[in-house]
Amino acid sequence: MVPEEEIPGIIEESRLTRTVKEGTRRLKGAFGNIFRVEALLLLFAIAMTLVAFGESFYGGFIANFLSESGIPREGIGVFFTAFFAASALIAIPAGYISDRIGRKIIVVFLFALAAVVFSYSLADTKAELLLLRAVHGAVTAFIFPVARAYVMDKTTEENRGQTMGTFILFTSLAGMMAPTFGGILRDQTGSFNPLFYTAAIFPVMTAIFLLIAVRDLGKGFAVQKMGLPTRELVGNRIFAVILVMFAMLFFASGILTPIMPIFAIEELEMSYTQLGFLSVPMGILYAISQFVAGTLSDRYGRKTLLVYPLIIYVVGIVVAGFSVNYLMFYGAYMLVGIGAAPYATVAYSIIGDVVKQEQRGVASGTVTTLSGTGYIFGPLLGSAIGGIVGLRIPFFLCGLMVVATIVMLFFALPKEKREVSK
């Protein structure tokens, strides 16, 4: 028998052992959950990383390409407007169609994307370039919004933020590396055509990968009449606030879209390689920030991880506007990468939380439409101001719009009653 005086020590040791084991179990679970994504979603993320790589290979230099094609600085915004107007117009029908027949529709439009990208090398006139930009925008509306809807389909509220963060982490890595190679190729060849030839390969690779490795892209939900998302979706207060947020932030971003690469090349005298390499350190911070924000939002609430990082975004944009050399510009965009990344991951997680599964394609398309609305007017304003007043002013105007978005979210988005998981 155990002496009576030793019993308390044994009990205490037993409690300590249980505590250590429980702590170890939770620690392993925490680290395991960080990278726990279904194999199907992992394959899908890899596939979409390929198409994201192709789009990023040349995407950051489109404004420079248009400038070299004879488009005046103040007129470049029209070509961005054509892209995003077409995307906004098509996004909701694209989402509806994907809800009805399944997300496999992505495959068809990946081949269409390859044809459009290759056609940039053949365009000779402004009219042809404008038409290509519009068709390009319409095609992408059937790819990226539908891809996000697929991720929403395959996740639950408990892991949606983490999984969405993982998905965007993969695609962000592509956006991080591709512009560097694109910039090097542009500097070495002195032409944009090799960029388009190379980029056109990746959508084809993605389509083949999806057909072989993923295959299960869903068969669609019950057929019903398509309607504009005015009642069930926009009537949802949280979803409506998120829509307004996307419109405001994309308007702000759109102001800089036609200006930033021209500012870097002409004002700061950066090479295309330097401009492309900017995406590497920025992309690393952007990807990590998205993943961390998505994971933390599952535990600590979406609103906190949606609002406060935008303050860092504002600081980065303002510093970029004051930049006098590429190092200062690099530092500013590191802040932009940290601050701008979380809102997309967290916002789409919120949409997944509050929207029914059979409506997520339409919801994702609606976001693209409202975002496209911001991009319709943003580039027009940015290129006009940049061409008439100066290339620095659009940076400050962008920062002002983000500040307005922060204020709107802080007061319009309801508080959450989310308990930290144990």
Secondary structure: elements and pairs:
Layout (H helix, E strand, L loop, with lengths): L6 H28 L4 H21 L2 H7 L8 H25 L3 H15 L6 H15 L3 H10 L6 H30 L3 H7 L1 H14 L22 H20 L3 H8 L4 H6 L1 H22 L1 H6 L1 H13 L4 H15 L1 H13 L5 H29 L4 H20 L10
Helix pairs in contact: 2-8, 2-9, 2-10, 4-6, 4-19, 5-6, 5-9, 5-10, 7-19, 8-14, 8-18, 11-19, 11-20, 14-17, 14-18, 16-17, 16-20
Give a verbal description of the structure:
This protein is an all-alpha fold. It has one domain (37-412): MFS general substrate transporter like domains (Growth Hormone, Chain: A). It contains 20 helices and no strands. The chain has helices spanning 7-34, 39-59, 62-68, 77-101, 105-119, 126-140, 144-153, 160-189, 193-199, 201-214, 237-256, 260-267, 272-277, 279-300, 302-307, 309-321, 326-340, 342-354, 360-388, 393-412. Helix 4 (77-101) runs antiparallel to helix 19 (360-388), helix 5 (105-119) packs antiparallel against helix 6 and helix 8 packs antiparallel against helix 14 (279-300). The longest helix is centred in the middle third of the chain and has 30 residues, at 160-189. The chain starts with 6 loop residues before the first helix and ends in a 10-residue tail after the last helix.
